[in-house]
Model the fold of this input.
Amino acid sequence: MRVFKFFLCLAITAGLVYVLDRPWTIKNAAVPPVGRFLDPFQGFWANLEASGPQIPDAMPIPGLQDKVTVLFDSLAMPHIFAQNEEDLYFAQGYITAHDRLWQMEFQTHAAAGRLTEIIGRGPGDAVLNYDRGQRRLGLAFGAEQTLKSLESSPVTHKMVEKYTEGVNAYIQTLDYKTLPFEYKLLHYKPEPWTPLKCALLLKSMAQTLNMRDKDMEMTNALKMFGFDVLQALYPDREPVSDPIVDKPNGWKFKPVTLDTVPLALPDELIQLKKLPAEPIKVKKLPSSDPTTGSNNWAVSGSKTATGSPLLCSDPHLGLNLPSLWYALQLHAPGVNTMGASLPGAPGVIIGCTDSIAWGVTNAQRDLVDWYQISFQDNKHDKYLLDSQWVDTKRTIEKFVVKDGPAYYDTVLYTHWGPVTYDDTFGDQSNPKYYAFRWISHDPSNEFLAFYKLNRAKNHGDYMEALDHYESPAQNFVFASVAGDIAMRIQGKFPVRRQQEGKFLLDGSKSSNGWRAFIPNDQNIMDKNPARGFVSSANQYPADGTYPYYITASSFEAYRNRRINQTLAGLDHIRPEDMMKLQTDNFNLKAEESLPYFLKALDSASLTPAEQKARQILASWNHYNDKASEGASYYEAWWNSLMPLIWDEMAGHTLENPTTFNTIYLLKEKPTFSFFDIVNTPEKETATEVIRKAFSQSVVLMEKWKNDHAHATASWGDYKDGYVGHLTRLEPLRVYVKAGGNRDIVNAHSRTHGPSWRMIVSLETSGLKMWAVYPGGQSGNLGSAHYVDMLQPWVDGKYFPIPFLHDPRDPKVQYSTQLHP
Amino acid sequence: MKFVIQFFAILVSAFIAQLFLPWYSLAVVALAIGYFFKSNANFLAGFLAIALLWFLKAWWADAHTVSDLSTRVAIILMVKSKLVLMLVTAVIGGLVGGFATLTGALLKYKRKMRWY
Done:
């Protein structure tokens, strides 16, 4: 009996250990090994950090050549001092991985279409479809091209190789206890870092910034509405003008011209005037949020209080945790640079050296084309190109799936690029084959540009560095201690014919491809303009005399004018004025549209709630401050108005016209046929559609107030912004009550916004930086530095970022010595 | 008294083992202690010792951090609060500790029988 009891107990104990040490799936939710995960010694409890340094005073790290000193300031931002460049990038890799390893790996897995390995196929195969999309867009293909290019330069080869070694040296130190929280929660382990992952990270940024297009939507609009309506809905250039570089007739060069087809509309569409042609029905991959954008500007010393230039940069991106940016200083013989780095990429991306500063905003330009492919037969082995059957290149993509069998997909590569949409992908009812041409599939070496920028001393160095920069195209603002300010729109831009790039193209003619690229010295740029400042905010890039045809999915219309108006009106500018401008909540769009909207309510009979709403709106100061109620009513009105006006677009592969053009049409063409609401018998004009949207929005506002038991709807509450965790797990979100919105200088919409706010004063006595970002230096959810900058960011506060020289500087909180 | 000795022996030795070894080392330790130190309530001693050890360790970690990670994990695992999460942690450790101690104690009991 005892024997039986003994074996029974032994079996129970062993069974418990087994059950608690393996992962489970309960109701489709993955549960980590409960015992291991909850073990307070090594499980997730071990990720709860006490305050204070999380790194020893000294550490031997195999692979270093010499001693490296890392000083940490009060934000836990590392200032890395190395004796040589190799050690500098090695240490950057090590220290960045120490704080952000999980994020680095997750982001590059996402870019490469490998998320199924970590989280399985997802509900309704959502994760698998995301991964398939990434492979079919050729992200890894583009990264491999970049890798070849960066490895062909000894400088960047070394840079990326050493960074990789540093990351891997950190991975070597990990055991279950020290593993980042997310690995424990999702139950997997980091794999070795590779140079390809550095390249993948760049491609992922390029995808966010340079992959927006509306070729299929425009083609459909052309087929459904005809060319004249198309031009009214989607003009190449909207009647609002404050371009990034405005120097009429100042373009003194002989542009590259293409002597072929003057109009690159597809042949079958040129003659087409609203014929009953069948529209394309493709479920397109979601492109990046159109509110993604940025501000940057530099003010010349003639307009500042110190007499030295000021440079400001705030890139607007999806706000996630861990934060996209990782701030640091890199110091070694020949280099001293500080600013925002991307975890996973060596060097500093936005920041300063001891002589210059630079910042970026996205350059709006069409760098994507879609080509319809004609295959010889259903085997897809050959496709038509210039009257010949050309071999398709076939790649088999394997998707390793967590807790399931692997999935295989075939991606066909053509002369143009990968065939993204076909009969197995894109949910088509009329299967056609569309190949994807993207600038970021071309080999380029952006790391060389950043390597050089990180060492630049003057305007000439900046120009030389940017010559190596191709993708994603950016507006690079510049200022130097020597007193220069400049702007340069840099990227690899195809020379386009009129209308080219807006519509689907015929993939059977190689003449439809990109024939030439704009030479670097003919890109749009400016230096020390008479107005005393340069600025960019994703608007149309140049005045009408710039000789190249420019098209993009959209151009910004409001932030740029507010910034320029403010800068033009300021003098003796101090950094505080720049902080005020970066966090400015003035809603220019509301100022230009609300009086017109309110006029539409004249003589309308209003309910008591509507009367009150009208009153709130009429007395609103047009600032989207977080406490403002007028802002909530205006935004709710706008959100009801857009779908009501463009109801014709719903259910088709079409895109709504821009905010600016919508308001323009409402004011200038109030009887435009699109203002009629399709499913009502009466014929609406601008006035009626504005009124209907108003009533709708007031009902929604009343409901919101009821649901939330609030007497008033302040904008911060109503917007309900949050910073989500990269896993998209809801309990890991952090909610913020913040002002601003899209089209406002403080561009914080619900989930997007200024991901890094930086101000640099380029004083000869020593350059000063102030910065803040919505998160914190540590990627560990259990750290005091995980979100310590988030609330200051919401409140519009900045931190002085010390540019350190001396380990005994009082701003140093703690330090570590890395040695071989 | 035997119970108290057994209880502390498990608590201290599991604490030391867990500083270096994976979590299930506590089962081996508890089994060994159950074998060497027996009491009238072996399961209870093992359960309480490990539950207390795990609860205190989890509470200690949480008390010394400014982060709210334990609350967020509680929501992910669908338990009410971080206190409940600490109790769940304690019970899970305790169950393994209790059964392991009992297993060890049973082994010893049988051998003693032969000697009497």
